[in-house]
## 1
Amino acid sequence: MLAITLMLIGLVALLLTGLPIFAGLSLFGGLLLAGEPGGLDAVSDLIFAKTGMYVLVAIPLFAYMAHIMIRGRIVDDLYTTAHTLTRHLPGGVGIATIVACMIFSSISGSSVATALTIGAVAIPQMIRYGYAPKMAYGLVAAGGTLGILIPPSGPMILYGVATDTSISGLFMAGVLPGFLLSGIFMAYCAFKQWGTPRAERASWGEMGRAVRQSVWAIALPGLVLGGMYAGLFTATEAAAIGAVLALLIAGLAYRSIGLREIWQCAIEASRTSAMLFMILAGAAVFSYALTKLMIPQQVVALVLELQIGPYGFLLLMMLMLFVLGMFLESIAIILITSPVIMPVMAHLGINPIWYGVLLVINLEVAMITPPVGMNLFTIKGVVPNASMGEIIRGSMPFVLLMTLGMLLVMLFPQIALVLPESMINAQ
């Protein structure tokens, strides 16, 4: 146990020096293998096998779809539509912000992109309607985290590849927990803003016009997810279909994108994908080193000795992930912990899809907890005059709300599992 602990502490310390994740994982894994006879012989074949998987094609395709939708200004009307539909409700502006975050999350798959794009529009609007600035900052920071839970989700793809778990199943599993967290955020907005002045209810004509303005931004994620749920195509095929539809919508329906923008989107998607593939290569070396040293088997033996059971193990993992999330990026956390705990989960009978959702919710919490919560810095970039202390204070209630959502998914696994199970039965 001491050796395992020292090994993980050493890796975390190495990554905290600022070394790129792929380099840290490769270097640390290589050092561990160097002492093993023939340990480095299989590394090149291992990396090629891990990064040459067909399912990874989904990463650049989903990234390309997101860039096309953003550059084509297809999502520009999202917030206006959401505000038109909800402005008469208690906390209506905040609710509109969460609705816009939900829809944008299903397009971008990125927490930072969601917080940045929606925050630039929503924060001034919320403050104008009487929201306390810290409430506005916290709401957008937390709403932005939905980007990695509501599919498509980059971290879910990486977790699925690292653990050989169905990516389509993970995507479906993230939908209801995403709605649950969104509902909790909306209820909190309504509670906090109860009794404050509200805007006049929009007419049916206004609502209809607003929905027509953003119908394609709303429809595309539904088509992609609906096709996966119905078994019409896999996650990789869904990514390809989504990218083609995004091109057609931006080019023909909106006429808002040209060949130059299409080329720029391809470059940006390639850069993002190359970074993730490099990290996967490093993770393959690290995972292979752990297997050669029989670390997973030692962890299984330790859990059996402690006799903590499935829920005790999950609580312990959630606590450890929360601490790691304060210092490391979500990708590093997924790829460091997954090879170690998968044998334990198999032994305890923990569904890897269920755990994947709990993991992603925990990573969402990490996005808004200091000292390295990325969405906190994103809000600071959107509102340069805001103090970091005020942004953090505004985010803290949402840390508690997200923890509540995580506990509900832990206590009631079917929140995450009902859609993947019904998807399998429907096929």
## 2
Amino acid sequence: MTVVLSRHTAGDVIRYSELFPTVRALGISVERVAEVLTAMGVLIDDRRPSFEAWLKRKLDGLGDGIRAETEHWLRTLHQGGPRTKARKGGHRLGSHEQRPAHPPDLVTAL
């Protein structure tokens, strides 16, 4: 905390993007330092969500018409919509759970 706050004066803010390299280089827990700075009211979390970077990569190169529709669909899957719930955090788009081909009762009966 001393290193991070050494140049801090009243009214200054610290951005997460500036904090991360400094704290990581010292081998200190970034999460804990960020927690304390947040409690002090001086941290601005300017990280970009990983979903946004993933979405940008996936949509890169698509034509405007299909890009807009695909982006809307993927955001609805991710965030939910009027008739759908958001996907749970542990799920990745494009991954599927493996299930048995037949219900267990049917397999037992055969």
